[in-house]
Amino acid sequence: MNCELYLRNGTVYLPTMGKMAEGFYRGVEPVAVVSVSDINDVRQALQATTARGNPIVPMLRRSEWKPPVLLKYARVRSWSAFERGMLFWTIKSNDTSFQIAGQKKQPNGMWNDDPEQTLIFPTGATVDDVIERMITILQDAERT
């Protein structure tokens, strides 16, 4: 499972991450948009998004790329506008564990896992454990 979530101006954005044939992911509908201050809505959005998993979506040629799905929900025109003031995390799982990783923008413009914001859960942790920790991370980020 691969899940991306964004915090911007007090709002959490959770796109469904579609898996392309080549193993890459892209944000697709549906997208959950909830206030970070409403813990129950954040919990429900995370539960629904993780339960959806990563549906298979077609690999697009460069000429077929559309603007990121999040832009219309944030009511901005460009990714660079969305990035201003944005915080970004990924939640990943494999057969044995979960990981939450805060993302850090690199000098080349790419976002990568920030080792200082990476949390690897012990074997046996559940998706609910991860969701509760992610809610705490979001609440702490909003306060600072």
What can you tell me about this protein's structure?
The chain has 144 residues and is of the alpha+beta class. The protein has a single domain, classed as NMB0488-like (NMB0488-like fold, 3-Layer(aba) Sandwich). It has four helices and seven strands, in the order βββαβααβββα. The chain has helices at residues 39-52, 70-74, 79-83, 127-143, and strands spanning 2-8, 11-20, 25-35, 56-57, 87-93, 98-105, 111-120. Strands 1, 2, 3, 4, 5, 6 and 7 form a seven-stranded mixed β-sheet that branches. Strand 5 (87-93) and strand 6 (98-105) form a beta hairpin. Helix 1 (39-52) crosses helix 4 (127-143). The radius of gyration is 15 Å and the shape is globular. The two termini are 29 Å apart. The mean pLDDT is 95.
Question: What's the rounded overall pLDDT mean?
Answer: 95
- What's the CATH architecture? 3-Layer(aba) Sandwich
Characterize the main sheet: 7 strands, mixed
| CATH-assigned homologous superfamily | NMB0488-like
How many beta-strand runs? 7
Report the portion of residues in β strands: 35-45%
Task: Please tell me how large the radius of gyration is.
Answer: 15 Å
The DSSP helix count reads 4
CATH topology annotation: NMB0488-like fold
Shape: globular
Which CATH top level class fits?
Alpha Beta
Uncertain ranges: none
